[in-house]
Amino acid sequence: MIIHAQTPVLEVHDLTVTYARKPVLWGVDFTLPAGCIAGIVGPNGAGKSTLLKSIMGLIPVSSGYVRLFDHPLDEVRHRVSYVPQRESVDWDFPVSVLDVVLMGRYGKVGLFRNTGARDRAIAQDCLDKVGMAAFAKRQISQLSGGQQQRVFLARALAQEADLYLMDEPFAGVDAATEQAIIKLLREMAAAKKTIVVVHHDLQSVRAYFDWLVLLNMHLVAAGPTEQVFTEEMMQQAYGGRLSLLSQVSDVMEKRAFPSRED
Amino acid sequence: MVGDAISHAVLPGIVIAFLLSGSRETLPMLLGAGATGMLATFLIEYFHRRANLQTDAAIGVTFTFLFAVGIILIGAYAGQVDLDQDCVLYGEIAYVPIDLWVTEGGLILGPRPVYILSAVLLVVALFIKIGYKELKLTSFDPAFASALGISTALWHYLLMAAVSLATVSSFESVGAILVIAFLIGPPATAYLLTHDLKYMLAITAALGIFIAFTGYWTAYWLNASIAGCMAVVTGIGFAAVFAAQRLMKTKGSPAEPTRAIG
Amino acid sequence: MQDITDFFSFSDPNVRYVVLGNILLSASAAMVGAFILLQKKALVGDAVSHAVLPGVCAAFLFSGSKNTALMLVGAFATGWLALITIDYIAAKSKIKKDAAIGLVLSVFFGAGMVMMTYIQQSGNAAQSGLDHFIFGNAATLVGTDLLVFSVLAAVLLLVVGIFFKAFALVAFDRPYAEALGYPVRRLDLLLTSLTVLAVVTGITAVGVVLMAAMLVTPAAAARYWTDNIRRMVGISVAFGVFAGFAGAYISYVAPAMPTGPWMVVVSSAIAFFSFFFAPRKGIVPRLYTQHKNRQVITEENTLKMFYHLGERNSHFDGQRSLEELASTREVNKTLLKTALRRLVAKGLLVVRANQWALTAAGYQKAMRVVRLHRLWELYLTKYMDIASDHVHDDAETIEHILTPELERELEHQLGYPDKDPHDTKIPKT
Questions:
Q1: Confidence (pLDDT) at C111
Q2: Into how many domains does chain A fold?
Q3: What is the pLDDT of residues B84-113, one digit of tens each?
Q4: Which of A195, B134, C135, C136 lies at a C-alpha separation of 20 to 30 Å from A235?
Q5: Where is the ABC transporter domain (chain A) (predicted)?
């Protein structure tokens, strides 16, 4: 079941992604409306993070395309913010909390110029929004998991984007942080920002998201949560992988078949 | 470890430049060394990506091969050039004062390496000053950097070029292998001492100067290799800082805050 | 010619020593190296080989002569110390492993150089030959060295033989080995000791700087020829032995040529050859497979054109011209012509006066491709909820891949359907 948005902010069209010739996402096709909090949900290995990364152009796509605000990514990069998984970076890196948040301004500042007083003010303001204002001077190696996630969120806010793609922002954070983050996301959505969240915990799906993308190597369903989040759909998404699909994937990997004729 | 690989791999380039130009002109040597240094980086990438060779093996195979070629070239043309195996190992820092820069008019401007190394220092410092922001971001969070549209590959190669430059210019003075000690030792020590990247850079530079002085005096006192003594001092410095920190930690001093997990 | 016969007659005892010594040391190094490679510790091998230098020099300082046994002990001690230091730094601080390796390697080597220059300045007469340990000099090998080498090689062979299974398991799946109750830490230490031993064996002939290559390079090359670990160790040893032999020969024919570096160059050449040309895993065979696959795709697509034309005017054995074929889908004409030629050669098409027609076998094959295409389209719409106007592209790929087993399973899952999502007939054999 795919329910398309009327005027989409994000359009993913027939996206196929392969890792070392093994397809991990097959023909994913969906759209998202503006001002929604959308959850990307599916079992382990369903390709949720891969989907986010291919939207951001971080991994090459084999076929299909992505359009943001009805433009290709490169034309609207400044309007899109990406929040990687917390574990993907080295938290022993010698920078302060404010330094990390300032990184969100780098796209606006450009090469050869440094971040200025205004960027600093914005960064400080973003830290305030995530409840980390007091930690600005702290080194990142001294933060807890929840605090690290808040810093990442502040960095995303500092980008002043219109579309936010977040890879598992709730993984391994404390309950208070989770509540604080979701509250913030709601405020952002109210201000017509669109937020896409890769999510694991099915318990909170109905409470958190107003749009849902169900993934299991292929798109199972996409649409408003109340229509998509049904027993039948969840059964389809979590009821085991399509064995034929996995077998075809394996054959493609072993025989080094090109994913497209070229 | 790429620094290790580059410092070994520049040898054949230096020797070939030597044979072609027939003199110890700095420019051909820099060009030759830069060429094989880049060849090594390229081969490592190529074997890793194209032949699926594991990275450590790709590095190990490539640089030992290039180094062996360099040694063979030196052996083969030993009679014809004023470059021998000892020079490769120890460098000839002691001869720096002899290697004078004499103008056409016979004016003596002082030791040539001093000018060259000053120029290199200036270039490297300028590079870090200009690219500080980008270098910081691409090292800390490459995925986020790419999402902002900053090319991680470009900055990686620029950094490697800076490493090559520093390595090649030090080669004459301290030899191929000990360059690594100065490339890694001071920053590793500084990394233990501070959580702030700016301080880390400052401490690294200060340590470098300290090592040069103490290393020289130790060598003078022992009547042994200057470069070797500098490397040993580097090691002792690191060990001292490391041990002091371990000692403080086991005493349960609050100086090092425990890192929260999760 | 004289050189060759002289060399291979082994009448000169020096030649015998050098060749045998080289072979023993390369074989030992390559054998241990296979496990180092599989444990992804190639750079650790590099560190050990540099770090034995201070030990050798210390032994010399202590004894005042070139006492082989004592030097081995010294080398062993510092090689070991270096590895333990690396592990300790990486475990107890935020310094990453590769930085720790580089630091320890260069500082130990620096210490070795300080000692060596100190010895040289102190003017001890026996020091001549000590600097050979850096780049190695096979010509200095003598009978007693050979004896030591043989014993070391025998010990290495024996220990590796006994612990083969354990090493293999630890390299493949460390947590599982731990869960089985293998003493993983002690096995690590054992492999470390073997590494140091192998390096020590090599320093007289190859030198500390290049010994890392003799450990890792033959093993990396061997990895490309087999997936069987026993064979891999065997092939690695064979490559190492060949390199040792070649190095000895080259420096015999051209005495100015250093043995160690040539051994490294020869084994690197073997490795590069393997990276490019080893069957299945090499770069060239892989490109060839891809090329073949692409050919298969063009051929099958060409056959499909005949089928589609046949469907349009409902007779499948009609004669088709190049223009007619090209009208069915966007296609490069030269590619199409070569594909047609290949298909004629395979007996799937017949050609008469620039008109092509399907043979019976060609018809079967064309039908199967079309069938797979439509089955897959149906599968995509039915099981993956992809709209029927979005399934064509994907099916264009999959139709060339499905094996007969997958075809049967697909058909079964779809309940032996007659029509595809576009309501076109799915042909049946």
A1: 92
A2: 1
A3: 666 666 666 555 556 666 666 666 666 777
A4: A195
A5: 10-242
Q: How far is B257 from chain A (nearest CA, A)?
A: 7
Question: Which residues of chain A lie closer than 8 angstroms to C297, CB-CB?
Answer: 258, 261
The single-letter code of the amino acid at B133 is K
For the stretch C81-104, pLDDT in tens is 998 899 899 888 888 888 899 999
Length of chain C counted residue by residue: 429
| CATH (domain of C11) | 1.10.3470.10
- A13 inside 8 A of chain B by CB: no
Last residue of a domain, one of C281, C314, C329: C281
DSSP secondary-structure letter at A41?
E
Q: What is the DSSP string of A167-235?
A: SSTTTT--HHHHHHHHHHHHHHHHTT-EEEEEE--GGGHHHH-SEEEEEESEEEEEEEHHHH--HHHHH
Distance from CA of C261 to the nearest CA of B (A): 5
The reply to whether residue B78 touches residue C256, judged by beta carbons under 8 angstroms, is yes
**pLDDT score of B257 more than 50:** no
Provide the residue range defining the domain that includes C46: 2-281
> B184 vs chain C: nearest CA distance in angstroms?
6
Q: Residue C371: which CATH number?
A: 1.10.10.10
Determine the 3-state secondary structure of A38 from DSSP.
strand
Answer yes or no: do C114 and B222 touch at CB < 8 A. Answer: yes
- Whether A114 has its CB under 8 Å from any CB of chain B: the answer is yes
Name which residue leads in pLDDT, B24 or B61. B61
The interface predicted TM-score (ipTM) is: 0.85
The CATH number of residue A124's host domain is 3.40.50.300
Q: Do C257 and C212 reside in the same domain of the chain?
A: yes
Q: Which domain holds residue A181?
A: 8-254
Nearest Cα residue to C200 out of C152, C128, C147:
C152
Answer whether residue B254 shows pLDDT above 50. no
Residue B137: list chain A partners with CB under 8 A: 103, 106
Q: Which domains does chain B possess?
A: 2-177 (1.10.3470.10), 178-247 (no CATH)
Per-residue pLDDT tens digits for C256-282: 778 888 899 999 999 999 999 998 888
Substitution target in B8, B61, B200 with the highest count of C β-carbons within 10 Å is B61
User: How many domains does one find in chain C?
Assistant: 2
Pairwise CB contact (< 8 Å): A244 & C379: yes
Inter-chain contact C298–A261, Cβ cutoff 8 Å? Answer: yes
Partners of residue B65 in chain C, C-beta under 8 Å:
213, 217, 264-265, 268, 271-272
**How high is the pLDDT of residue B202?**
94
Looking at beta carbons, which residues of chain B come within 8 Å of A57? 146-147
Q: How would residue B261 be classed by pLDDT, with cut points 50, 70 and 90?
A: very low
Share of chain B above pLDDT 90, in %: 21
User: Cα dihedral angle (B236, B240, B242, B244), rounded to 10 degrees?
Assistant: 170
Alpha helices in A81-164 (DSSP H): 97-103, 106-109, 117-129, 145-158
> CB B144 to CB A57 under 8 A?
no
Say if the Cβ atoms of C118 and B223 lie within 8 Å. Answer: yes
Cβ neighbors of C216 (< 8 A, separation 6 or more) are B57, B60, B61, B64, C33, C36, C37, C42, C45, C46
CA nearest C94 in A: which residue? A92
Q: Which residues on neighbouring strands pair with residue C350, listed in sequence order?
A: C357
Q: Picking from B121-135, B195-209, C108-122, which range would have the lowest pLDDT averaged per residue? A: C108-122
The DSSP symbol for B260 reads: P
Q: Which residues of chain A have pLDDT under 50?
A: 260-262
The verdict on a CB contact (< 8 Å) between C213 and B68 is: yes
Is C294 in the same domain as C164? Answer: no
pLDDT attached to residue A154: 94
**Contact assessment for residue A146 and residue A86, using Cβ atoms and an 8 Å cutoff:** no
Least-confidence region, from B133-142, B154-163, C379-388: C379-388
Whether residue A261 is contained in a domain is answered as no
Closest CB from C286, C297, C402 relative to A261: C297
User: Which position has the higher pLDDT, A45 or B215?
Assistant: B215
